[in-house]
Design brief:
This is Sugar ABC transporter substrate-binding protein. This protein is α/β, with parallel strands linked by helices. It has two domains: 143 residues, Response regulator (Rossmann fold, 3-Layer(aba) Sandwich), CATH 3.40.50; 160 residues, Response regulator (Rossmann fold). It is 40% helix and 18% strand. It contains ten helices and twelve strands. Strands 2-1-3-4-5-11 form a six-stranded parallel β-sheet, with helices on both faces. A six-stranded mixed β-sheet has the order 7-6-8-9-10-12, with helices on both faces. Helix 1 packs parallel to helix 9. The chain starts with 29 loop residues before the first strand and ends with a helix.
């Protein structure tokens, strides 16, 4: 694993206020935001908060997105376009930690500040900074919860893992964190299935259906995000599985899943993350760098919280009311 440098973003100085200092005119700042796709409300929320923050700070924001979490070509084109436009900085949620490195380097060679959001690049120093959830910690928290609930229910764990994709490091970090939190090795016989879903609800439903056909006794389901969890739940419902005998955990913190699946207990616990913090701090950091000469580097943890209405002893968590107050999306 790469060593992470923990940083905090400095306070927004007078140069970032709408009025400036003592009537000073603000220096123009332009920021590009490149997300992965707009089907997942996570990315929509991130984009909306970036625009709100840009408006508050009198920053010009241009945006681009791909058509899936793995659409590298669209992101390469967007990076080139934004460099040609002369933006001061680019916020990018990279679709691939390695494939985008040449395009990112071209942007930095042109003097553009590049901050990765949500998903790291490899190596991490290929960007100026990285603002994201500590995905390994989020995965670890749901793993610890699942292990505690398995003990509480007296289950012999039969684990299915609905992962993202081996090419996307954020998903890999969550998967590794879950294994650590649960106390499982990669080849532990308790893991009866491990499949990729691309974080997509429909894909997850198909893969969960296939897994259930081969392993009908599965009683622990880890899902990389809540769209995958909702797909898994649809498959479980179609198979008439008793959810009281199954532990389902996930990562995200979206409002829909919080209301429709975590509150009624279909998802036993989820680790919330905060795309709004990534967007807000990213725009602020680029504005501060341009207007005040502030240096931006290292890793900023934008936070996560475990949410469940069935708390387990020894596992720190918050109630669903908190999750609904802090969730994102509609």
């Amino acid at each position: 694993m790469h060593t992470r440098t923990w940083i905090t973003v400095g306070a927004v100085l007078c140069g970032l206020s709408l009025a400036g200092c003592a009537g000073e005119e603000l220096e123009p700042v332009s920021v590009g935001l490149i997300t992965k796709q707009e089907e997942n409300p996570y990315w929509v929320s991130l984009k909306d908060v970036a625009q709100e923050t840009a408006d508050d700070l009198d920053v010009e924001l241009s945006t681009a997105t791909g058509v899936s979490d793995t659409d590298v070509a669209s992101q390469e084109a967007a990076l080139a376009d934004m460099v040609a436009e002369g933006v001061d900085g680019i916020l990018i949620a990279p679709a691939d930690p390695v494939a985008l490195l040449p395009a990112i380097q071209q942007a930095r060679d042109a003097g553009v500040l590049v901050i990765a959001l949500d998903t790291p690049v490899d190596p991490p120093e290929a960007v100026d900074a990285f603002f994201a959830t500590d995905n390994e910690a989020a995965g670890r928290s749901v793993g610890e919860y699942a292990a505690a609930k398995v003990d509480d229910l007296g289950l012999d764990p039969q684990v299915a893992m609905l992962n993202l994709s081996g090419d996307i490091s954020s998903g890999e970090l969550r998967r590794m964190g879950f294994l650590e939190g649960f106390g499982l090795d990669e080849d532990d016989p308790a893991i009866v299935a491990s499949v990729d879903t691309q974080g997509d609800r429909d894909n997850a439903a198909v893969r969960m259906t296939q897994v259930l056909a081969e392993h009908p006794d599965i009683n622990v389901i880890y899902t990389v995000n809540e769209p995958a969890a909702l797909g898994a739940l649809a498959a479980l419902d179609a198979a008439e599985v008793d959810l009281d005998e199954v532990v389902v955990v996930s990562v995200d913190g979206g409002c829909r899943a919080m209301r429709e699946a975590v509150r009624p207990g279909d998802i036993d616990a989820t680790a919330t993350q905060y795309p709004q913090n990534m967007a807000r701090e990213g725009v602020r950091a680029i504005a501060a760098a341009v207007r005040d000469g502030e240096t931006v580097s290292g890793f900023l943890d934008t936070g996560s919280e475990l949410v469940s209405d069935d708390p387990m002893d020894g596992v720190e968590s918050r109630r669903v009311e908190f999750g609904i107050r802090t969730c994102w999306g509609s």
